[in-house]
Design goal:
Layout lengths: L5 E6 L19 E2 L2 E2 H11 L4 E6 L4 H6 L4 H9 L3 H12 L2 E6 L6 H6 L2 H4 L4 E4 L3 E3 L5 H12 L2 E7 L9 E7 L6 E9 L10 E9 L3 H6 L11 H11 L2 E5 L4 E3 L3 H13 L5 H14 L10
Parallel strand pairs: 1-4, 1-6, 4-5, 8-12
Antiparallel strand pairs: 2-3, 6-11, 7-13, 8-11, 9-10, 10-12
Helix pairs in contact: 3-4
The structure holds 1-O-phosphono-alpha-D-glucopyranose.
Amino acid sequence: MPTVTKAVIPAAGWGTRFLPFSKSVPKEMLPLVDRPAIQYIVEEAVAAGIDDVLAVVSPHKKAIEDHFDRSKELEAVLEAGGKDDELAEIRALADLVELHSVRQGEALGLGHAVGMARRHVGDNAFAVLLGDDMMHPDSPLLRDMIRATETTGRSTIALMRVPKQDISLYGSAAVEPIEGEESLVTVTGLVEKPPADEAPSDLAVIGRYVFTPDIFDHIERTPPGRGGEIQLTDAMASLADDAGVNGIVFETGRYDVGNKTDYVRAVLELALERDDLRDDVLAVVTDIARREGLLSGGDSA
Ligand code: G1P
């Protein structure tokens, strides 16, 4: 049975939903308080047992590689300034994981991006984490998915119920229950971003996948699909027909940080969980709510 120690993070997109920010800064570097989104993603992978991450990047994504690299210059400045806590944090970041990168020269789709990892991943099961989907640090999702693949030998994808009218933003899955299992299901069909009235279900594919290496053959056989792109969902549908794919249905802990409102929610919720920020941020939020007439207690502006 496979063990999963490698992860792939596709990070080559333009992030058009976050323009103009993403014009010159990779959207994966969007700060969630004081850490870029991709740091949370890498930390999630490490917490689930991953020790080797391959980022699939485009030429304008150097900031991502720099973020996880050593910076002797910055370390020297922090050391000279006696900033020991910051120094320890910056060093730990560089030691977090073995980060590799490969360039996706052409933007041919998510399936193509994952296919770029073939040589690095080799004949191993591996995880894929999409940067737009951020999981709360306490979420057991990825760990549960890895365990599922390690015990069943099948690829495992993450599924979440969404309002039916939103399903056209996602891959949609048809599933069947597995006897004796609560959240693990068999995937019987997958469609990328179907119109709501044609979707097989309201179960959306969320950006966490654990694949067996046979996904690569299916990606290579996948013709361009929706939007003229090589869709990962189409390759997964083919894998499901061939070798079987499981899904884990989960409910909580996900932020869609590619969506502006959910991004702001992520920043606020993460800040409220930090001892150094909670009281001040709560005061700001309370003040805004009062000003907006959502709380009694008068206009404090
Ligand atoms: C991608 C996938 C889609 C999946 C989604 C999850 O779409 O193609 O199947 O449901 O991620 O976030 P994107 O959001 O990159 O357009």
